[in-house]
Specification:
The structure holds 2 protein chains of 2 kinds. Chain A is an alpha+beta fold. Chain A has 1 helix and 5 strands; from the N terminus they run E-E-E-H-E-E. Helices cover about 15% and strands about 25% of the residues of chain A. The radius of gyration of chain A is 13 Å and the shape is globular. Chain A starts with 13 loop residues before the first strand and ends in a 6-residue tail after the last strand. Chain B is built from 7 helices and 16 strands. Classes of the chains: A alpha+beta, B alpha+beta. Chains A and B meet through strand 1, strand 2, strand 4 and strand 5 of A and helix 4, helix 5, helix 6, strand 15 and helix 7 of B.
Chain lengths: ~90, ~300
């Protein structure tokens, strides 16, 4: 079931979690603590993907995010909220 | 009548209570037994032949309290009294060293009010009433209200009143400066809030960006890139009908990629994302939002190889 995106202004210790998985992109509806560990972030993302809470076209039964990368970007003047990106590992050439 | 009845005779007295259990009247001191008053002020106490006093309740300023005590007259400044006899040279920095704390000041007194205080047995000055003005107070008040910087032209201003004027003027300047600072902070906060609101309205959620792409691909691409901190430069039709070529600026460099116009999924990242062990291309693993983070990592780790050069 897809949850509503919470558009409220984030606190300084919160971040928006953006997830790229299987070529799709979604935001976790609720903000997450900016200081959350990689393991916590992957656990939340795994649960959201598996339950279809991200609103992706389909839910996934086996979600393996072990190799995924967590990028953290602090708020800037241009982008005024902290962001965390969870994405596949990069196969740089 | 027995002598013991004389000893047991009690009376009610009204005294200022300024904390603690000690209570000082002119000739005697008492120790409060039982409850003490909840607040500083004038209170009624029952006293008997002993030195014990019992609190009865709140009282009113006892007008004869000053009789037989040292009287101090002067100007009221911030719960302090500037006595009439302060030094001739007024220096605003000395307000608190020259003034003496004044207890139980009546609320609502005028600015530059002259007051009378009586010294209690424990040395504290207690307000006992207003004092007649000396004459120049209305002119000094008018000068203060007109924001005059000096009162040198007013005749007969005693040093204590001059010092009070300087203090009130300084206090107002400090309050004005604080108000301006708060206004500046509020303005900055409003601007920041407006920027944030614009950001949120522009970027929205990933799902909203994809809905937006159906009707305005350029706006959706701009929002997706903004999430990663990149700036959209241009969009044009790709070779395939559902492909869009997107040019953007990130970390002071120009990049180009090709994306699927509905999903914002990367078709061609414009940088090398090939796993040379398997020859597998990783481009389609990413979307316009996460491509920016990928480029950021490539720059940080010195692995950036650009395929599609712009400009």
């Amino acid at each position: 079931m897809s949850m509503h995106f919470d558009p409220r202004r984030l606190r300084a210790n919160e971040a928006r979690l953006n997830i790229t998985f299987d070529g799709q992109n979604a935001d976790l509806p609720a903000p997450v603590p900016f200081g959350a560990s990689d393991a916590q972030i992957k656990a939340w993302a795994r649960e959201a993907i598996a339950t279809g809470a991200l609103g992706t076209p389909r839910a996934y039964r086996d979600v393996d995010l072990a190799s995924f990368v967590v990028d953290r970007f602090s708020a800037t003047e241009k982008v005024p909220e902290n962001r965390i990106f969870l994405r596949p590992v990069t196969p740089f050439g | 009548m027995s002598w013991t009845e004389l000893l047991a005779k009690t009376q009610v007295i009204t005294l200022p209570w300024l904390g603690g259990r000690a209570l000082h009247d002119r000739a005697r001191s008492y120790r409060i037994a039982g409850a003490t008053p909840p607040e500083h002020g004038w209170h009624r106490f029952e006293v008997g032949g002993s030195r014990r006093a019992s609190w009865l309740g709140e009282g009113e300023l006892y007008v004869d309290y000053a009789e037989g005590r040292e009287i101090v007259r002067g100007y009221l400044v911030e719960q302090r009294i500037l006595p009439d006899g302060v030094d001739v040279k007024p220096d605003v920095r000395t307000v608190f060293s020259r003034g003496e704390p004044l207890w139980l000041v009546e609320p609502g007194l005028d600015r530059f009010a002259r007051v009378r205080a009586a010294r209690s047995a424990d040395g504290k000055l207690v307000y006992v009433g207003p004092e007649l003005p000396l004459g120049p107070e209305p002119e000094v008040l008018a000068a203060y209200q007109d924001r005059a910087s000096t009162i040198d032209s007013i005749a007969g201003v005693p040093p204590a009143l001059h010092l009070a004027f300087l203090w009130h003027t300084l206090r107002r300047e400090l309050a004005d400066a604080r108000r301006r600072e708060l206004e500046r902070l509020a303005r900055e906060e409003a601007e920041r809030a407006a920027r944030e609101a614009e950001y949120r309205n522009t970027t929205g959620s990933a799902a909203a960006r994809r809905r937006l792409a159906q009707i305005d691909f350029e706006a959706a691409a701009r929002a997706a890139l903004a999430v990663g901190g990149a700036e959209l430069l241009d969009v044009r039709q790709g070779r395939a009908p559902h492909h869009r070529v997107v040019q953007f600026r990130f970390r002071n460099r120009r990049f180009e990629c090709v994306v699927h116009w509905q999903t914002l999924r990367i078709v061609d990242a414009g940088i090398c994302l090939v796993d040379h062990a398997t020859e597998e291309r990783g481009d389609e693993l990413f979307t316009l939002e996460s491509l920016v983070a990928v480029i950021d990592e490539a720059i940080r780790t010195h692995q950036l190889v650009v395929f599609r050069h712009v400009g």
